[in-house]
Design brief:
Order of helices and strands: EHEHHEHEEEEHEHEHEHEEHHEEH
Shape: globular
Oligomer: single chain
CATH architecture of the largest domain: 3-Layer(aba) Sandwich
Bound molecules: nicotinamide-adenine-dinucleotide
Helix content: 25-40%
Strand order of the largest sheet: 2-1-3-12-11-4-5-10-8-9
Number of strands: 14
CATH superfamily of the largest domain: Isopropylmalate Dehydrogenase
CATH topology of the largest domain: Isopropylmalate Dehydrogenase
Largest sheet: 10 strands, mixed
Radius of gyration: 20 Å
Structural class: alpha/beta
Strand content: 15-25%
Length: 358
């Protein structure tokens, strides 16, 4: 298989972790006889420095021509002092590529139980869930939105809007993903209060008819936030809207022990973008100590979702598990008795584990 990948390393640790993920993709290409070609482009702070804007048109054009987009991270204190924001590049690229679904798998590796802030008995059975968040609708984009005044007092308003086809589209995707996993889907909303959520629930129930093999349940967002901490191991696929997903996915991330372990995919009809969920971590950038596993696991998601290379994705995921099982740890997941490794060493060890697999 021959594929083009547009690589956007970004800022801070973005380029460091991305370099390891590309090394891993090269190992996969080598082992399984594929050709992956990379073309790099600018996004975020580095794009602001070079062209004055966080998402240059040339970057978007290149993304649109590629078979998949792979991103590092953007942002940093250098661009916090006014002027264009690197993070605006993220919203612009999601919009520009029509990415409507954000997939965040949350897996607690048995080797990293010590890093999980929950009591061991709460996660004893393991945690392996997938959060599917809608990305293009909701209160983030609803119009009108803005400022006003009432009786001489300042007011502000946002509009929570979903159209039924937006809900249908993400629901179908979430059900299909549930079919490929544990066949359980929990839809999270606030249907006891919000009209938008009542439409959300109605449409999800309609879509469910097409997936009789998937067990559908519903939770209100406030209860879901509690249950995620009380019994994280009970969830398979969680489907939710943009705002609730933003909050819930960060809450779930904590369960895995380190933000450096969590990959993500953002999918659209025609394009897909893969990135670790963490930011540019300016506090550790340039020291070769970041954990590249989130980025490496994002590359595994790319192989699975964009190129349908399931075997290859599995090989990467097993290599990460084997690296942890042998006691290799970057600083963020370091525990007594383990062997501390750098970002580059982590990439090298994962590549070696891929090449050693039968
Ligand atoms: P962050 O995710 O960059 O860092 C939070 C903490 O986690 C830091 O202590 C950092 O050292 C640590 N950390 C993050 N990734 C790590 C890794 N791979 N290995 C080891 N430790 C890791 O979040 P922040 O500090 O709030 O934000 C820093 C910058 O990143 C800001 O400019 C923010 O806007 C931006 N940001 C970008 C994205 C993105 O590009 N998708 C996401 C979140 C934040």
């Amino acid at each position: 298989m021959k594929k083009n990948i547009c690589v956007l390393p970004g800022d801070g640790i973005g380029p460091e972790v991305t370099a390891q993920a590309l090394k891993v993709l090269d190992a996969v290409a080598d082992k399984f006889g594929h050709v992956f070609e990379y073309e790099q482009a600018l996004i975020g702070g580095s794009a602001i420095d070079a062209c004055g804007e966080p998402l240059p048109q040339a970057t978007l054009d290149l993304c649109r021509k590629s078979d998949a987009v792979f991103l590092g991270a953007v942002g940093g204190p250098k661009w916090d002092k006014g002027g264009p924001r690197p993070e605006a590049g993220l919203l612009a690229i999601r919009k520009g590529l029509g990415l409507f679904a954000n997939l965040r798998p949350v897996l607690l590796y048995p080797e990293l139980l010590g890093g999980c802030p929950l009591k061991p008995e709460r996660v004893a059975g393991g945690v392996d869930m997938l959060i599917v968040r809608e990305l293009t609708g909701d209160v983030y984009f609803g119009q009108p939105a803005g400022r006003g005044s009432e009786q001489g007092l300042r007011t502000a308003f946002n509009n929570m809007i979903y159209r039924e086809d937006e809900i249908e589209r993400i629901a179908h995707l979430a059900f299909r993903l549930a079919q490929s996993r544990g066949k359980r889907l929990c839809s999270v909303d606030k249907a006891n209060v919000l009209e938008v959520s009542r439409l959300w629930r109605e449409v999800v129930i309609e879509v469910a008819v097409h997936y009789p093999d998937v067990e559908l349940s519903h939770l209100y967002i406030d209860n879901a936030a509690m249950q995620l901490i009380l019994r994280p191991g009970d969830f398979d696929v969680i489907l939710t809207a943009n705002l609730f997903g933003d909050i819930l996915s960060d809450e779930a991330a904590v369960v895995s022990g380190s933000i450096g372990m969590l990959p993500s995919a953002s999918l659209g009809e025609a394009h897909a973008l893969y990135e670790p969920i963490h930011g540019s971590a300016p506090d550790i950038a340039g020291r070769d100590i970041a954990n590249p596993m989130a980025s490496v696991l994002s590359a595994a998601m790319l192989l699975r979702h964009s190129f349908a290379l399931k075997k290859e994705a599995g090989a990467v995921e097993r290599a990460v598990s084997a690296t942890l099982a042998e006691g290799f740890r970057t600083g963020d997941i370091m525990e007594a008795g383990m062997r501390r490794i750098s970002c580059t060493e982590a990439g090298d060890i994962i590549c070696k584990k891929i090449m050693e697999q039968n």
